[in-house]
Amino acid sequence: MCRKPALAATTVFGFSLVVWTSAQAAPVAPNAAATPPAATTSPAASATTPPRPRRKATAQERTEAERLPPLARAAFWARETNADPADQVAGVRLAAALRALGQYAEAASSAERVLVLAPDNIDALLESARAHVAQGQGFYAIAPAERVRALAPKDWRPLSLLGVAYAQVRRGDDAMTAWRQALALSPDNPAVLSNMAMELAAQGDAAQAETLLRRAVAQPGASLQVRQDLTLVLGLQGKLTEAEHRLRVDLPPEQADADLAYLKAVSTGATALSPAAEAAPSGHSWASVKGPGG
Fold first, then answer.
1. How many domains does the chain have?
2. Is pLDDT at 266 greater than 70 in this prediction?
């Protein structure tokens, strides 16, 4: 149930046009004394001196950047895109870092700048879909996710994203179909199982959701989000002893206390959990619990 708080990140993109000029030597009158060159550069001359182009990062620096926290990672990839606006890898990774910061509109914009250059860039299409889903704007995620499905029919990720996008636009049957197709390509995938389970929970079938989530958390690749989805569903059913144990394993004490209080309120009906979502103390809503789905 934990989510990193969204931090503001402002990035400036664009080109700077530098005009190169060469000074024309003035004619020298016969017998005129030679004028020695100036010892210092005049302000006017320095104003026309173009800035040295920024060096792009090495492959090793790029690899290391992916291990940075989201804010530092976003700053790194913003510098890379400024150094080379046509760098598609940098544009996609900037989108991912901005999404991790909760800057969903900026993340979508970064992905879409890549798509102007390369309309069939699968990674950029997926990042565009993820950013729209994270904003709760599933309608705008459908087109890029469907494009990836057409380009990469053996890839489970666009189907998982389509399921969430369809759920957000109240196409529940289509969502379940997409997730079943994703599971056919990637059996027992924890992200897909979790997305399917949270839709079932939204429809009031917490018991079936719990079954799917227990199957999901048993997988080696299960994330903290998947484990916290199970905790939420347990809380919805009033299974607070197990929910509390899971919270205290995964979260620091003060956050576990706050989330446990939230689950107690949900289980007793003191607060509601719905697509219109009140935020849980750890900062996530129904949409963020469901996650970007791939």
1. 2
2. yes
* pLDDT reported for residue 52: 54
CA distances from 114 to 48, 111, 133, 191, 198 (A): 32, 5, 18, 26, 32
Identify residue 50 by its one-letter amino acid code. P
* CA–CA dist 190, 220 (Å, integer): 9
Phi, psi (rounded to 5 degrees) for 205: -100, 70
Task: Label residue 268 by pLDDT band (50, 70, 90).
Answer: confident
Q: Is residue 287 part of a domain?
A: yes
Q: Which pTM was predicted?
A: 0.73
Q: What is the CATH number of the domain that holds 76?
A: 1.25.40.10
What dihedral angle (degrees, nearest 10) is formed by the CA atoms of 22, 23, 27, 29?
-140
Does the pLDDT value for residue 37 go beyond 50?
Answer: no
Q: Degrees (nearest 5) of the Cα angle 31, 35, 40?
A: 175
3-state SS assignment for residue 152: coil
Q: Is position 237 within any domain?
A: yes
